[in-house]
């Protein structure tokens, strides 16, 4: 029967083991405006109203790029998911964080070790504290099979907070992995649309070269017939050569975009090529929701919030260092003088008992650790709030960009039509000998610049669409973080 004192001691240990010192975590506040400052473009309107539904209802699950309706882009994005090396590294970091949880959680359980040994011992006749030659020389054997038991009782929650901090870091790492995935898929989409824009530029320049070549034939015929000076032929040839140079230059950029796509897919550039395919791309309708939803939809915000929680645990861990540590240790096993009596019952031995340790003086080390933990928490909160502000900025920037570029695209398309008409008129008047060839050249330069600018504005619109999807989290939300119960 246990003594009352022992029962009281055990009861006290059980009660103290449920204590946790340090602050309780509360998610830091982050100011979210009721609405975005920049309105979406007119193309985002539905029945005269802005489309503000949650993106989760409109983005394809885990494949936001499908909203662009391009099968080739979909196939390339899937290969990023499977083969990108940066994404594999992010996945490995998450697995490392999960393993750290298991490592720290092991401290919640006792440690048992065994260290068997066999020794032959011979005493020295000249050992200390004996007259020389008066000690009998003896040789003995020692056979030991000890089992050591070590268990720290978590009185103040230090171990539990360490495990919680590891879990929160694992959740943050999972969000980091999603941030990397979102960035890589967005980068591939941008490179893909840049490449298709280069294809469109090549188409424009090919048509321009063909048109300039026909005009060179016209000026040559007029010159040979005495109806035009030789300078017109020289200008026409110069125009043609300049267009060919611009055409060649575009191939440089196209090759670079193709190489970038190959690397994002985890392939050497030499093993990948994408056939030319000029496309008249149009930005999709992207529901932006309200700013408060952004706090749950961005993986980088989720990662920073989890690290704030981790920093809060560190304050509790530093606080626990001010209190005593209770460790239960035990040693037992068998010890004999020979193999014959090593494992006999009389050869058993054991020792068990608790140890209570408390630091009385450390020259301010614990206070410094506590101050450092609190400073780390303050820094994590500031980083979290800055990440939120940056997220709002990115959404506003891309909403503004899409709205302005939509208007600019309409204006530029009209400019293209006007410049084409001007070329037709000046060419007709030149054939009739009314206007000099310089007017035709000027009109051609304006037409080519307008056509190329129209293609470039379309490229910028597609890039802004990808950036807006990325800024909104790509259909992700914080509920996709691994729950603490799964990180064991």
Which helices and strands appear, and what pairs or packs with what?
Layout: H1 4-17, E1 45-46, E2 49-50, H2 71-83, H3 85-105, E3 111-114, E4 117-122, E5 139-153, H4 158-224, H5 230-264, H6 291-297, H7 299-320, E6 325-336, E7 348-357, H8 365-431, H9 437-471
Antiparallel strand pairs: 1-2, 3-5, 4-5, 5-6, 6-7
Helix pairs in contact: 2-4, 3-4, 4-5, 4-7, 4-9, 7-8, 8-9
- Going by CATH, the homologous superfamily of the largest domain would be Outer membrane efflux proteins (OEP)
Helicity range: 55-70%
CATH architecture of the largest domain: Up-down Bundle
Portion of residues in beta strands equals: 5-15%
Rough shape?
Answer: elongated
Instruction: Quickly give the structural class.
Output: alpha+beta
| N- to C-terminal distance | 38 Å
**Largest β sheet strand count, sense and barrel closure:** 5 strands, antiparallel
Low-pLDDT segments, ≥5 res? 47-57
CA radius of gyration: 38 Å
Mean pLDDT: 88
